[in-house]
Each structure stands twice: as C-alpha cells, then as structure tokens.
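so i finally got all the pieces together for this one. its two components total, 842 residues if u count the protein bits. some of the lines might not be protein, just check the labels. i wanna see the whole assembly predicted at once instead of chain by chain like last time, that was a mess tbh
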Amino acid sequence: MPDTIVMKFGGTSVADAERIKRAASRIVKQREAGRRVVAVLSARGKTTDELIAMAEEVSPRPDPREMDMLLSTGERISCALCAMAINDLGHRAISLTGSQAGIVTDTSHTKARIIDVRADRIRQALDDDLIVLVAGFQGVSTSRDVTTLGRGGSDTTAVALAAAIGAEVCEIYTDVAGVFSADPRVVPTARKLPQVSFEEMLEMAASGAKVLQLRSVEYARTHGVRLHCRSSFEESPGTVVIGEDETMEHPLITAVTHSTEEARITLTGVPDRPGVAAAIFRALADANCNVDTIIQNEPREEGRDAEVSFTIASEDLRAAERALEPIRAELGIAAIDTDPEIGKVSIIGAGMRSHPGVAAQVFETLATREINIEMISTSPIKISCVIRSEAVPEAVQALHEAFELSLAEVQRERPIGQEAR
Amino acid sequence: MPDTIVMKFGGTSVADAERIKRAASRIVKQREAGRRVVAVLSARGKTTDELIAMAEEVSPRPDPREMDMLLSTGERISCALCAMAINDLGHRAISLTGSQAGIVTDTSHTKARIIDVRADRIRQALDDDLIVLVAGFQGVSTSRDVTTLGRGGSDTTAVALAAAIGAEVCEIYTDVAGVFSADPRVVPTARKLPQVSFEEMLEMAASGAKVLQLRSVEYARTHGVRLHCRSSFEESPGTVVIGEDETMEHPLITAVTHSTEEARITLTGVPDRPGVAAAIFRALADANCNVDTIIQNEPREEGRDAEVSFTIASEDLRAAERALEPIRAELGIAAIDTDPEIGKVSIIGAGMRSHPGVAAQVFETLATREINIEMISTSPIKISCVIRSEAVPEAVQALHEAFELSLAEVQRERPIGQEAR
C-alpha cells in the first residue's frame, strides 16, 4: 500500500482564493508523487474572529454549545473551497466535517477532548482514490452535538487522524519555515533546526515558541506520530519532530525561546498552614487560568506568613484577579499585587541533562548585560528565567550568541567549558 | 399536549444582530404563550451570496457536493446566533443542522429533494422543554453527504418539519405583511388577503408572487400543513393558506400577480412531424430552463412548417439559446428569435371556475388601455396574459381596479356582470 500522509494547513495558508489554490496544488503534488493524502484545514484567516464578533454582538455570554455550532462553520468553508480547487486540478477530493471524519469527543463544548477517532469513512475514501479534506478544530460529541477542540485544535485534529490511519508523517504547513533556534524577528541569525525531539518541542511550545501547539505535540508523542513543520510558501524541508531515540545527535542547547505576554501575581501575608496553596491554585484552575512558574517563600519562623508568587499569561490576568478576590477574604491573605510587565526567556536542549554548567552560564550571560532575573524555573532540558518584559529581546540575543546557536553545525556533547567561551 | 408550531424566518429577518434578537423574542413570545416551538432559519441577508462569490473566486465550476458543504454553513450560523439570543432571554434553545434535524434527501446536490424526515431528535428536544432551531435549506443525503434543497429550500424545510411533527401551523415570517391582492409597490391600494386557498397560492407563486415558494406550497398542500405568511416586523396577522374545503368564502378574483422578468423565444419554420416539439422541450428541460406559456401555430396546409413560441425566465434566456442551437441544425428549424422585453399579468381566483365571463373582462380591460396581449394561458382558476414588459404596471393597476380588489369586503359568488361594471 502506498504511503499515507496528513497535511495540515493553518489559517494564513488558506486566507484567500490564491492561497487556497496554492494549498490545493501542494496537496495534489503529494498525490501525484503516489501518496494517499488526508488534509486538515483551519478556518480562513480572520473567519473565526469574525464569527466570535457576531456572537458577541448577539449575546454577552454566548452559550458554549451554540458557540461550537457557530465556530465550526469556518473550517468547513475552507475545506469545501479547497476541494473545489483540487477538483479543478483534475483530481477528486471530498471534504468532511469533523463529525463525518469520525472525530468523537467528550461533551466539553469549546474545549472538547478527542476520545475516539472512527476513521472508516476516511479509509474508504482513500481506498476509492480520493483526496480527503477534513475540517479541523471540531468533532462530534457522544451526545451527537458539534464540538470544537479549543486553541490549537486543528493541529490536534491532524495528529489524531495521522495516528488513526497510521500515516507516515503529519505535515504542519504554516507561514514560518520551521522551528528556529530563536524567533528570527528577534535574532536575525537564528537558524532553522532540521530536527528536534518531542521533549524539546514540548518545552519550546510551553515556553513561547508558537509554531506548534503544545497539545498536538503531546498527542503526537503519545501516539508516535512523526511531525514535520514546514512552510506553505516555499518547498524546502522544515523541522522534523522525532522521538529522542531516533535522533543521532544530541545538541547541548537547541533553542532560545521567549514570551513577553506574561504577568506576575504576588500574594503576601499568606497564612502558613496546609491547604492554603491548594485553595489558591484550585480557584485559578477553575477560572481556566494556566499558571506557569510558581515560587513560594517559606516563612523563616514558625507561624509567620508566607509569600506566594506566580506567573500567568497576560490575557488571564483579570480573570485571575477576579478568581482570587473571594479567596483572599476567606483565607485572610494580606495583599494581592500584580505586575503586568513580565517576560520570560528560556533555553532548551536535550543535551543539557548531563551538563549542570548550563544554568551558571545562563545566569552569567544575563548578569553581564545587567538583566535582573526575578524568578527561575527548570526542567531536565530547560532553564527559564522570568525577567522584565522590556529586557526580553536583549536577553534572547545574548543567550543565542553565548551558546553559539547561529553556527551551521550544532555543538555536540562537548564539555560545557569548551563552548561557553 | 400543548400546540406545536413551526416558525420560519427568512434571510432579511435574521440579517443582523438586532433582527436576530427580534426573531428570538418573537419565538420566545410563542413559547411563553404555552406553545412548543420549532423555528427554521435562513442564512443571514447576503451570506449565501458571499459564499457563492468565494466559490467562484476559487473555481470556475464549483463541484456541487462541495457547494452544498459550503452553502449549508450560512443557516447554521443564523441558528447558533439565534439560540444564543434565546438563551439570554431565559429560555433554553438548541440549534440543529438539517442532518441533526433528520431531514433526509436524495443525492441531487444543490437541488436535493426531501425523501424522509426523521424527527425523533426534534421530538425529544421538545419533550425536554427546549426551543428547537433548525438550519433551513439543507439535509443529509442517503450517502451521508450534506445537501441543499435549492431555491425556496428553507420554506420547504419548515413545511416538511411541520408535517413530520404534526404542527398546528407553519408560520412563514418575511419582510412583507402577507399575501396581497397585488404587489403594493405597483398598486398602493392593494389589500392584504386574510386567507387564500392552496390552489390560489400555487397559481400566485407560479405567476410572480414572491412571498412563498411554489415548492413549499405544494408540499404543504400534499401534507395538509396550514401555512401562515406574516411579517417579522409587525404583530398583526398575515395571510393564512388553507384547503379550499376549509374556506367559507369563494372570492371570484383573489389577486392580480405579475412578472416583468420574462423572455420569449419564437422558433419559425419548425418541421411539422411528430417528436419535434418533444425534442425541443427535452433540450430545454435538460438545460434546466423552466418553460412557462407555450403556443404552437399548426400550419394551415399539410406539410407546411409550424411556429412554436414560448416564454421563460429572463435569467434562463442564454442557457435556452445555447440548448436550442444544436437542436435547430438537427431538426432543420428555420430561425430562432428572442425577445427579452416580455412581461406577464395574471388574475387568480378560485371563484372564476364557474364564471366564464372573467376572461372577456380581462381582455376588455386591457384593450381599453390599448395594451396588446401577445399570448394567453389559462387554468381553471387563473388567466395569464403575456404583454410587453413596460405595460405591466398599467395592466396590473387596471385589472386590480376593474375587479374592485381594493374593497375591504371581497366580492362573493355574484354573477360576473354585477362586479364588472
């Protein structure tokens, strides 16, 4: 049986008639190379924003089930148009809704989780020699309602289908050429990475790299789906995300990522007794605020109050404040301070596991530039520093230079001292 | 069990957020009056035109299956938005696609026919005390593809659902207040008709009245669904369409209808042998041209050629010419002449069945105004005259006046001479 591939095109790649035709010809090219193709499409450019604006015009708090019915139309429009374009190129294409494609989800409207993929209809269509286009970001719930998968949903649709039909690769087409050693807008000498491991990609997605959604990378890792991030607008290969056991090279540092849209909340005078922290973060979770770095200063003396500090996405700041207000009174917390001007810079690399010197070099590099580190968090393959948001570009450039990430050949397994010069 | 009603809102009635909220409150008012409500919605104002324009930008001849996938999104958007608005009014609403509502069609994409209505899900939702909103104009085919019902499709959806769930009435909300004795833009004294029979409504729809689509009226008559055409923008009752046996009154003449968008095609030198007319009209039918009035002049002498003349909608003129060109050569027809400036005026009334004098009065009325009648066609309850399109407004006014249709009380069963003065 010929290879099967899944190709996913994001919103900017199908934003107008010309781009839809370009996507169609990319799809047809793969078909003509003898592959069976399933393509997952997002809504065109601003379609989703327009639909949300319509809903907000009608209702102050749109019903989630109806929001899903509304938003799911955008991807269907993209797919129908692309199918037309493919048919004009002399190939036969069929567009399927998430439901027709067999994407079965739970009933959590606007943020449904995929619980099953019944891909019989896709398999049948592929056997009938059709190119299959699937509306991304959506599914059908166990109670037969249309659901949407939330942020990054179309990537998740693509990965889930690739897993279900056993595709050789899931290609993610976007307006960037792949995964870079840093954001090229901040570091012009950043290099495109030919490959990264799932672990690295997860850390990068979690720490500000926007090319792939965290959730789809997790799904791909769990189900062993090979991801290939590449550009819709050029032919050259992008970045392949692979299992760590597959990679021959173990770069010490792969990339520097950053984020400037963070905020910090500091709670002072927090009573030092069990359950307080749990109550605080339960309230935030219930308000759908994703907490990133957390620091708690234990009081030096028994019975004194503690201080808890954490970062969240800027867009969640108001929701977090609203969620904490009742908790404050209830627990007797002295004060809640917020700081919206927070940024984060992270260095990521599977090779740092065995090189404890990396952290020291990060701190030295930032210190040399007189950039103050406000919070630190680490994982085995990542070091993140919370800093003032205005210092982020300089910090990224300094770290990218310090770890020599612009070099054509990535450093391999050399002692930390050698490359730190 | 409380009464169940179906309410259908057309495109202008859901064109923007304000109108959607107004439709929502009309629906809620019926619910609060104790009725179970199923509402069928069309796409918002220009949505369908915009979607068609998108398709044409991508493909010169869009694939019909994909066209249906594309166009069906418009009604879903209307339904989702209206459901949100109803939820805000403190009632619970659920929107359903044509497929979810159980509208099963054949596989004729872009002009599918309804072959079954499996309304279990609607019934269940009504039993659960929900207001049910259904996306009009669409269904799911026996091969599980999304289909659309073609022109007038949302009216047909509404009538089909009313029949399936045994609704007391199917209310059709539009931007006009009901069915009038003539187009009020042409005849300012035209009166709103409190009721018309199915037969009259069918003739009116077929002869230019745009308030209801022919097809939905046929469906309603076949399945005994009571129709009520009324305004979305005012509260007063509109026009009820009922079985002839139900009506106590038998007006001689109910209304004058007209159309100015007609064209005439005249074939001269048509060979006088069996099968020729069949070949001509088969070619037109295959090109989807709906032929209206047909006149054939038999040759006076054996073996001489005949002349065939017929009218069609102006928009079909070019398609008809293209369809006839090969037929002309094949059959040896001398010439094809076209006249795009054709109009039609018709008078309709169930009471005229027993009054042969009506036709004479129509011709006299037009003769007095020196309006030349080019073709005539009749049914038991209709007389249509094909005239120059520029003469149509004057002809409508003259006939409306001659048959005294502005009177508050419609004439009943009187001898023709009495009202013809």
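Chain A touches chain B through 38 residues (CB under 8 Å).
The two ends of chain A are 53 Å apart (CA to CA).
anyway lmk what u think
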